[in-house]
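FW: tagging you since you asked about this chain on Friday. Here's the raw sequence from the shared folder, copied in full. Didn't touch anything.
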Amino acid sequence: MNNDIKIIENKIKAIIEKNEDSVKGFEKASENAKEIGIKAYFEKRADQRRLFVKTLHNAVPELKTQNADDGTTKGSIHRAWMDVKAFFSGDNDEAMLEEAVRGDKSAISEYNEILAETMIPHRVKEIIREQRDAIQNDLETSKILEEIA
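HL: got it, structure written out here
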């Protein structure tokens, strides 16, 4: 297999794994949130990321991850950190929204890296672009919610 194609596959697989971790992170944030509206927002985000994973798996089935239910070790550490922040923070909704903003910025950066690749099939590139744009919109919403939380 061409080395460039393998690199692209690894980047797409990393995005799939990051979205799997995001599902768990948003579920954890929903559990920790105090306000019903914030809980619902995080639940919606978890559902969205679940759909992102499914869409990417359907577009590139050979990149299915092995332990989708477990997420990655890095993701597990991040969720534990969210629990610690929720425990010690007097306003955990704001802390969870801060983490959502940070995670979204990181995801957008990773999506942009893949979009810069020239060898990605057009249909996969369109899916990635749509997902990146949705995350960008959610980032703006998270920032607004963070200000009012």
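FW: Residues 86-90 have pLDDT under 50 and may be disordered.
HL: agreed, and Residues 3-32 form the longest helix (30 residues).
FW: great, closing this out.
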